[in-house]
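Consortium newsletter contribution from the modelling node. Members have asked for a concrete example of what our holo predictions look like. Here is one, prepared for the NAP complex that several groups have been discussing at recent meetings.
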Amino acid sequence: MSCAQKKVVLITGCSSGIGLSLAVRLASDPGKNYKVYATMRDLEKKERLLESVKGLHRDTLDVLQMDVTDHSSVLRARDKVQEGHVDILVCNAGVGLMGPLELQEAEVMRSVLEVNLFGTLQTLQAFIPNMKSRREGHILVTGSTGGLHGLPFSEVYCASKFAIEGACESLAVLLQQFNVHVSLIECGPVNTNFLENLQKVELGDSSLDALDPLTRSLYQSFMMHCGSVFQNVAQDTEEIVKVFLEAIESPEPAFRYYTSEAAHPLVKLKTTRLDGLDYIREIGKITFPQDQEESQQDRV
Ligand SMILES: NC(=O)c1ccc[n+]([C@@H]2O[C@H](COP(=O)([O-])OP(=O)(O)OC[C@H]3O[C@@H](n4cnc5c(N)ncnc54)[C@H](OP(=O)(O)O)[C@@H]3O)[C@@H](O)[C@H]2O)c1
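And here is the predicted structure:
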């Protein structure tokens, strides 16, 4: 396929995980259908990506520096796109945060919102005008089931991902008038560097001593629950990339794609039982299973 016919894709957060896998898959496309601009905030981390493509894809891959929290860095990356436009924008960069809310420092909470929310918004701002004027484009955003339903000890992360849902849904309503599609790829747990990179209050951390015993014990249950979920049901990035491809290749992309059916019952519960309580009780049972058993035993 000639350069002129290739779809131009720009992806944020390609140093690892989902962004890296997606960049490698698209740059290695057998039909050479894509020209990929894989962006990352720290170019010193580009070796992993370059090793994954084994130097084979010089004509389909470029690596650019882009920190989504730095407006001038976003604009610089955009202006380096040789084709002068992006057909497919993937807002993927994100960070996690876990721990009792009362222990989170304001600066840390802000930094999560800076990347996940403001970083995504300012990336969208940089690329939307050109897509609008060309009456063409597809925006994909790596969403999270933590943006569809709340999770204990994840208030700030969920707030950032809920906010992304609202921003994307609002944009999708407008952009359909411009033939620009918006798709959220809703992921549950995925085997990436996310857990390692996640800022969290460790179980042995002395800051936990300031908390009441029930919160401490619930946090311990939740951490065990998360550990077992990531060990047993986390998806590999290849599965996530398949869902991205389905969305990218669709002539009429959906607004939401779920990478696994595991989230469906909770999402349905939330949207059909409008007072919200059934969902909150259910997620409590799932995330604090030990405490459920103990309180049942107490009642016997
Ligand atoms: N893994 C999961 O379980 C899971 C579940 C649901 C949703 N997600 C979402 O999936 C997306 C990708 O995460 P992942 O699982 O692939 O984790 P990951 O391996 O930690 O990748 C996150 C990427 O975001 C980048 N990033 C962080 N801050 C950035 C910034 N200011 N500017 C540009 N890039 C930045 C990281 O770069 P550095 O290497 O420089 O830090 C890294 O490349 C995130 O939006 C996350 O919320 C993940």
